[in-house]
Write a structure and sequence with these properties.
Blueprint (H helix, E strand, L loop, with lengths): L6 E4 L3 H12 L4 E5 L22 E4 L5 H12 L2 H8 L1 E2 L4 E4 L1 H13 L4 E5 L11 E3 L7 H11 L4 E7 L2 E3 L9 E3 L9 E6 L1 H13 L22 H6 L18 H4 L5 H5 L4 E7 L6 E4 L8 H8 L10 E3 L2 E7 L2 H4 L5 E2 L2 E6 L9 H19 L12 H11 L25 H22 L14
Parallel strand pairs: 1-2, 1-7, 2-6, 7-17
Antiparallel strand pairs: 3-5, 4-5, 8-15, 9-13, 9-14, 10-11, 11-12, 12-13, 16-17
Helix pairs in contact: 1-12, 2-12
């Protein structure tokens, strides 16, 4: 073990796992504190590091998409978590999805065996007063640490409510009804599709709107807010009869070519479904399937009753029911710099959903930056900020400079990327130019800071 004083990383989720790895990668010892299994959280199901508590998907892989662009930036920066996601990927059409059990087990084993990483299974009650510390406790920070953070920051958390989708046993899905297909028959058919006709859809819609919801327990019902990118399916349904059909149940481009022939066959288009419930593969063996877009806060009995109305799921066996939990975050524009350091205490950093970035990949990205900068601070080097033309740079710039009064969590998206010098009307072409500029600027930035990027694979640019 090095004579260097260890950096303390509090929280072993995606951000904390990436943070600890980047610190150790820089040759600095790190203590990674994870309270599970000593103390459980309302959303986690295992004691593995980097557990994926909602979906098993990291979003679209295409580098002309916001999530895919961030995936590729992280690959080039040497992210351990994205590297393991690539290694344990399962078929998911154009998305990067993983076998979440194997993914978490592997990352836990790799970090636990690193000579510079000490994994401590304990709850941290207070922010350490000395040394370099990184907070990566996520949306479910324990009560004691939350109170200490509020005292330190001089302000209470903001919050919204987050929800997870049910997972179904593959063998219990009726394959005489559900069919494999990708939208518009593009790429590998990686989704199971449960088609609905108009009568089936409206029967389902009415039952969903009137189904009984679970109690929010200690959450304050009157202050509950939902994050728009992760709305419970029943909340989407209550917004209008056709809202689901223009959202998670969109039938456009989905045809049962197994039953009715070629994609463009007239008899297939006659049988175009009125709505479609999609299921995404959870594991490499295809034994578990996630109901895409079916985040929910319905009571478990109601979930079984209503979701079994979906054609193909009449006898569905659920291995995990949908759950909902509170998601808390700090007012980062008031508290953090774009290096993810606290303005009032530069040797304290934070990353992940705690700082108001939304989504798995954003948490990993914040972990990369916080870990890199924590190590640099410990080594007496200046902290880094990334070009705002990169997705990572733009995301961190947003959460550190947004209007504090109206600050809300932000996922990776092309809207936060600075405009091109010359306007490009075609969206796909414009996003492609954003990508090309980002990767070029990332390389220039790395050269200026004497950092080595991982050479991309040609397939990663597609």
């Amino acid at each position: 073990m090095s004579d260097q004083q260890p950096i303390h990383v509090i929280g072993g989720g995606l951000a904390g796992t990436e943070t600890a790895w980047q610190i150790a990668r820089a040759g600095v010892p790190v203590v990674l504190h994870e309270m599970r299994p000593v103390k459980k959280s309302p959303a986690h199901h295992s004691e593995h590091l980097a557990e994926l508590v909602c979906s098993n998907s990291f979003g679209a892989m295409g580098t002309d998409r916001a999530s895919g662009m961030l995936h590729e930036e992280l690959r080039r920066l040497g992210s351990i978590v994205i590297g393991k996601a690539d290694e344990h990927a399962v078929p998911a059409g154009g998305a990067l999805a993983v076998d979440r059990g194997v993914f978490g087990q592997d990352l836990t084993a790799v970090l636990a065996s690193h000579p510079l990483i000490e994994l401590r299974r304990e709850e941290v009650l207070r922010i350490p007063e000395e040394g370099v510390t990184v907070l990566t406790t996520g949306p479910l920070t324990s009560e004691s640490l939350s109170e200490d953070l509020e005292r330190f920051a001089g302000q209470a958390y903001m919050s919204f409510f987050d929800a997870a989708s049910p997972i179904v046993v593959g063998e219990s899905i009726n394959r005489d009804v559900a069919f494999m297909a990708s939208r518009y028959d593009r790429g590998e058919a990686a989704y199971l599709n449960c088609p609905m006709d108009k009568a089936q859809y409206f029967a389902f819609y009415h039952q969903l709107c009137t189904a009984e919801q679970a109690e929010l327990k200690d959450f304050e019902r009157e202050t509950a807010k939902f994050f728009e990118a992760c709305l419970p399916i029943e909340e989407i349904a209550r917004r209008g009869e056709d809202t689901m059909r223009y959202g998670p149940l969109k039938p456009v481009g989905l045809f049962n070519t197994q039953k009715y022939g070629a994609f463009d066959a007239p008899e297939n288009k006659v049988h175009k479904p009125y709505a479609v419930v999609q299921l995404r593969q959870e594991d490499k063996a295809g034994q578990l399937w996630n109901m895409v877009g079916f985040q929910t806060n319905l009571r478990w009995g109601e979930q079984k009753r209503v979701f079994r109305m979906v054609p193909g799921l009449e006898n569905a066996e659920f291995v995990r029911m949908g759950v909902m939990h509170r998601n808390t975050f700090i007012n980062s524009p008031e508290l953090l710099n774009s290096s993810l350091q606290f303005k009032s205490r530069p040797n304290l950093l934070a990353a992940g959903q705690l700082v108001g970035t939304e989504g798995y990949t954003a948490a990993i990205a914040g972990g990369w930056l916080a870990g890199t900068n924590a190590a640099r601070i410990a080594l007496g080097k200046p902290p880094l900020t990334l070009p705002i033309t990169t997705m990572l740079g733009a995301l961190v710039d947003f959460i550190s400079s947004a209007e504090p009064k109206h600050f809300q969590p932000m996922p990776p998206n092309m809207g936060i990327i600075p405009a091109l010098p010359k306007r490009v009307r075609n969206k796909r072409e414009r996003y492609g130019q954003y990508r090309d500029r980002a990767f070029a600027d990332l390389q220039t930035w790395a050269d200026e800071n004497n950092l080595s990027l991982v050479l991309p694979k040609m397939s990663a640019i597609a």
